[in-house]
Known about the structure:
Helix content: 55-70%
Largest sheet: none
Protein name: Regulatory protein zeste
Number of domains: 1
Order of helices and strands: HHHH
Number of helices: 4
Structural class: mainly alpha
Oligomer: single chain
Strand content: under 5%
Radius of gyration: 12 Å
Distance between the termini: 27 Å
Amino acid sequence: MNVTEKQKQIxxxxxRANPDFGRGQLRYNRENKKQIEKLLEKVTSALNxxxxxxxxxxxxxxxxxxxxxxxVSHRLL
Length: 77
């Protein structure tokens, strides 16, 4: 099932609310690991709570969709 426009909008809104995450400015290191994982869980929950569209685990959202959307949303932020 394809990602819906509603899910895309949820992701864009999430990235705007979390600009460091949205712009990829949080390095995946010891200090930020838990923060990044919490944000991934949060965005996964938001995307899966949409009334339509696919339901996925965090890892499934990250590759390749979220990385592609990050590139797109980076220009929107």
